[in-house]
Specification:
Layout lengths: L3 H15 L9 E2 L9 E4 L5 E4 L1 H10 L3 E3 L4 H6 L13 E4 L3 H14 L3 E3 L16 E3 L1
Amino acid sequence: MLTRRSFIARASMLGFAAAPIGRAWPALLSPSGSVDRDIDAVTGDGRSVTLSRASVQELADSLRGNVLLPGVPAYDLARRVRNSQIDRHPALIVQPRGASDVSSAVQFARASNLLVAVKCGGHSPAGKSTCERGMRID
C-alpha cells in the first residue's frame, strides 16, 4: 500500500537522484571539450553573424551553468522541444544555474545582437521556445 508519506519520500529521493550535483557535464560542450571554432549565428533581425570562439569561451567561463554547442549528444537532447514537428538548431544553448547566469547570457546576446529564445517548458506549439542559429536560454 502506498501511503502519502511513502509517496513523498520516494518522489523526493527520485528528484534528488536526478538533480545534478555541481555541473552535470563540463561548462562548455563541443566535440573537443572547448570552443574550437567560431560559431555562425543569426541576429534578431535575421542577419548572419560570426561569434568568435574567444567570446563564446569567455561566456562559458563566466557561467556556473552550461553552454552547449552543436556536435555533441547533450546538445541534441537539449535542443528538443515538446512539439516534435519543430526541429530547430540553435547556435548555442545556455543552461543557466541562477539569475546571474541568465543576466550574463542576456548581456552576451545583447552585445552580439543575437536572436534569443527562452525554452521555459518547451511547450510552445508554434515553436517560440527555440530558434534557428540563435541563442536559446534553457
